[in-house]
Amino acid sequence: MSELSMSIDGAVLKKVSNSQINEKGVLEVPDAVTSISAMAFSDCTKLTSLKLPSNLLSIGTAAFKNCSNLKEMTLPNTLKSLNDGLFDNCSNLKKVILPDNLEFIGAWVFDGCINLSTINLPSSLVSIGDSAFNGCLNLISVTLHSKLMSIGRGAFDGCFNLKSIKVQSNKQQEFELVKKLIPAYIKEQVAIEQITPYD
To answer: Which structural domains are found in the chain, ordered by start?
Structure first.
């Protein structure tokens, strides 16, 4: 942990390199850290699993970009937004547990995450950024919720195996409003289904 501590400035984790990751590829961020800088873990190809502190407040742009062997991640409920390019080109990422109170997914967050097959988007989500899931070749199913107000350009481009988009809503009007956000070319290829919170 001493090497990692050298990369921490106050409560901010600045940078981690491959040399600071053990042979199993597992790393635990100290509880004192409340912020992770942009590009902090970028190109850490040895990293397979990372435990984040429960009081983490922010993670910078492209913090995990090109972590090509990262397989799973649980993001703490203290996070309300995912900054641009957060998991860009994490080609072996299979599972991400998102914060319960997440409101914003930025642009290119899961770009090139070709092994991501399913993701549970929280009911608090308001916005999905441009190209957020671009190139997620194995993404099969997505569930959207009635609070969603915007889906960015190309958010699901290159999701060639996407078969189902479910919209969780009690009211037909809410369902129709969310359905309108989904690009026409997606609606032509994918089944759009309304479900209730109790389904």
So the answer is: 2-195 (3.80.10.10)
Q: How far is CA 46 from CA 4, 8, 74, 75, 95, in A?
A: 15, 20, 18, 20, 17
CA dihedral 145, 128, 187, 123 (to 10 degrees): -10
In single-letter form, the type of residue at position 176 comes to: E
Instruction: Summarize pLDDT for 177-186 with one digit per residue, the tens.
Output: 999 999 998 9
Nearest to 31 by CA among 49, 63, 57: 57
pLDDT digits (tens, 9 = 90+) for 131-150: 999 999 999 999 999 999 99
Within the chain, strands assigned E span: 8-9, 12-13, 26-28, 35-36, 49-51, 58-59, 72-74, 81-82, 95-97, 104-105, 118-119, 127-128, 141-145, 150-151, 164-168, 191-195
Q: What backbone phi and psi angles, to 5 degrees, belong to 186?
A: -70, -45
- Estimate to the nearest angstrom the gap between the alpha carbon of 78 and the chain centroid: 14
Give residue 185's identity as a one-letter amino acid code. Y
- pTM comes to 0.92
